Amino acid sequence: MKNKTVQSPEKTAGTVSPAAVTRREFLKRMGLAGGGLIVYAGFGGAQAFARAARTGYAGTNVPVDFNAFLKIGTDNRVTCFVGKIEMGQGPITSFAQMVAEELDVLYESVDMVMGDTDRCPWDAGTWGSLSTRHYGVFVKEAAAEAKGVLKQLAAERLQCPPERLVTREGVIFDRNRSGSRLTYGELTKGRVIERHLEDVPALKPVSEYTVSGKPHLRRDSREKVTGQARYSGDIRLPGMVYARIVRPPAHGARRVSVDTAAAEQVDGVQVVRDGELVAVLHRYPDVARQAAERIQAKYVTPQTGINHETIFDHLLKNAPPPAVAGQAGDLQAGQKKAATVVEETYLNSYVAHAPMETHTALAQFENGKMTVWASTQSPFGVQRQVAQAVGLPAEKVRVITPFVGGGFGGKSASAQAVEAARLTRLSGKPVMVMWSREEEFFFDTFRPAAVVKIRGGVDDAGNMVLWDYRVYFAGRRGCENFYEIPHHREQVYGEWRIEPGIHPFAVGPWRAPAANTNVYARDLHINLLAAAAAQDPLEFRLRHLKDPRMRSVLEAVAEKFGYTPARPPSGRGIGIACGIDAETYVAVMAEAAVDENSGAIQVKRLVCAQEMGQVVNPQGATIQMEGCLTMGLGYALAEEMRFDNGRLQDTNFDTYLLPRFSWVPEIETVIVPNTALPPKGGGEPAIVCMGGALATAVHDATGAKLLQLPMTRERVKAALQNRKRA
Amino acid sequence: MIEAISFTLNEKPVNLRVEGDRPLLWVLRTDLGLTGAKYGCGEGVCGACTVLIDNEAVPACQVSVAEVAGSEVRTIEGLVKNGQLHPIQQAFADHDALQCGFCTPGMILKAYGLLASNPAPSRQEIIDGMEDNLCRCGTHVRIVAAIQSAARALKGGRP
């Protein structure tokens, strides 16, 4: 391994980060006064670009500024810098495991710095179950590169051929002379060693792992159980004020007048106005709120006639032309072969992210530089947006991401950070914007309402021969057909992104976007086809499946459940769903009881099997599965945003119902081992099954078809009525 | 109206001159600099701001500071003793009974209030007692297990 000269960003081919800083400035930020080894995230150059493409990470616009993955200090502590953020999903633990593994240091000696745009390598955002699957590759390679450099230095210092050197727990020693040893810190003392990660270093084989693949408890628990963990709303600056922004009563409402005089009379209040932005500032958030309530604002709200009941017709009428996500054979031929055709339309309501921490940001403008502490899933996205909004170059904006109190996709958008930055410029004071729960619901980027139409057919022998699938506005993720069906087509009418003029408010990515809707509709429909063919739903699925990964999770979940076959509806209330998300395979079995008088569904048992390639932290992966199943109870059973003419009807947790303790059954999970594959996604997959698993459980219990999520008591009772009529 | 209000906070006396009708939550978070109690809903329907008032778990957003005059208030910051986690905190950490951690202080104090009134709750009593505290990450099964193990660690004693 030869040392490479570090090129300045200006001389390196590739895209220069908008926030590029000088090398001298960057080393200062890194705190390398006493010496140390630093491995840069070398996105520059053709090789690095190829690596980025290979891992699927940031195909375009990869910066080549001085940004490091790793620092090894003279105190033997290792710092790992990542542009990802910690919102509960656990990378603060699993990245540290990856570093410890490849660098041969103690897990406890690794510190994590996350989501700080001044110190961490660029990253688009924390979403898509990509942290381990894509970003983890870079982290491991940086650690392996650092270990190679340390070995090279040790070979010189210990006068020993490199192949005789052994690394263990942050120490390098000569295997023939055990007294001949140096710590990593001793090797880096007194000089700054810089390496640009370009070549792909050899990584450890999984068989040699001792840290990765072993269960680790969360490393941030002590801070979080003592109240010491800092979230954006917990940062305090001298002279800071809280903002209360004047908001419209409905989406689409236009303000025609605003009178702030009464608010301005409140002691200590400052009212600021900049175009549409009108805000009350006060050193106490509760006083700012009270003062803002004294503001008289008049609005004109257009009558759209769209509400949570008419929305589905509106969506179908305004659907864009479809994109074909997959097809084989010929639907007409399939129709001819089918002895029974089942055709249904499935509906999904708008669902909120509802993280417990509302969107929050504190902004400070000092010495020409803006610093923003933001609860966001995209610190570098916020940096760009803030820079544009307040007219600063990106390198004059630093975004720091403290602990984030839940995101689920909803903090991919972070308008509160821009609001805080603007108000700071206007007022000359540090400003905290902490959305109220009502604002959080109002400005959420909801999971879109959606429609799925499926026409499926089975032949005389009980084989699926026809699958005609159309999804409107949920999006394509998870709609692909993985069953052996000779004649099928999947068409996608609109994605989950904002489709201009369609939705009454903002929509966006909601944990495993699109897949929850698609898997729900597919699995209920598969069960209806199994019922039509008088077959057990598990056997029906397996007989149409060749993919060994999908078979493995279905077989594993059935074994853990202790499943015995029966034709649906069997009266037992057992549901099943399976899917592929973030390259992970997952299957869920649910057992539920339905109270036919009240329409209430009580989930009695949930079992989940997941095959996700190598698993860095089995404990963390298990908890993500449990969290997905629990959160998924909400969109399956209760969560929907009701609205009329852009006015939201559910603006707090009294009517927008999140899963509660009494809803949650015992949960059992199985990770199906597969170390032959690199790590796949873990934060989202298991949630995709919950709508399908519970809708099929209700069907199995009662024969009722729940064609709309969430399965509220009223809808259950209506479906039971329809069953009797049929 | 500015009032002189005194109470005990985490076993230390506090004397404030403050508007008496201000919510305890914001007085804790701003005047007193204790940020462990979180804002989640502002209407007492999520439990993120739960604190103990005379050993009873209460949403701090629904209590005015004047109402706690003369009371003993305990927040999450007051649970660690001599650097040692309280058995409920320890159980939450041991069970990984948290993800994002935002609801965690409220959950722990709600559990404290539960165990203070019922030192040996059944599983169903834990579920019933915790029902009004919300967790979006879905750590419920681990929280129930943590409270069960904290109750065992306390050996039937009050927290």
Distance between the termini of chain B: 37 Å
Number of strands of chain B: 5
List the domain count of chain A as a whole number.
Answer: 3
Structural domain count of chain B: 2
Model description:
The complex is a heterodimer of chains A (726) and B (159). Chain A has 726 residues and is an alpha+beta fold. Chain A has three domains: 9-220, 2-Layer Sandwich (Aldehyde Oxidoreductase, domain 4); 232-301 and 359-434, 2-Layer Sandwich (Aldehyde Oxidoreductase, domain 4); 311-351 and 446-725, Aldehyde Oxidoreductase, domain 4 (2-Layer Sandwich). Chain A is built from 19 helices and 29 strands. In chain A, the strands form seven sheets. A seven-stranded mixed sheet of chain A has the order 11-12-9-19-16-17-18. A six-stranded mixed sheet of chain A has the order 14-22-21-20-15-29, sandwiched between helices. In chain A, strands 4-3-2-1-8 form a five-stranded mixed sheet. In chain A, helix 3 (91-103) runs parallel beside helix 4 (131-158), helix 14 runs parallel beside helix 18 and helix 17 crosses helix 18. The model of chain A is unreliable at 1-19 and 55-65 (pLDDT under 50). Chain B has a five-stranded mixed sheet, with helices on one face. Chain B has 159 residues and is α+β, with helices and mostly antiparallel strands. The termini of chain B are far apart. Chain B has two domains: 2-76, Beta-grasp domain (Ubiquitin-like (UB roll)); 87-153, DNA polymerase, domain 1 (Orthogonal Bundle). The longest helix of chain B has 14 residues, at 104-117. Chain B has helices at 24-31, 87-94, 104-117, 123-130, 140-153; strands at 2-9, 12-19, 50-53, 56-59, 72-74. At the A-B interface, helix 6, helix 8 and helix 17 of A face helix 2, helix 3, helix 4 and helix 5 of B.
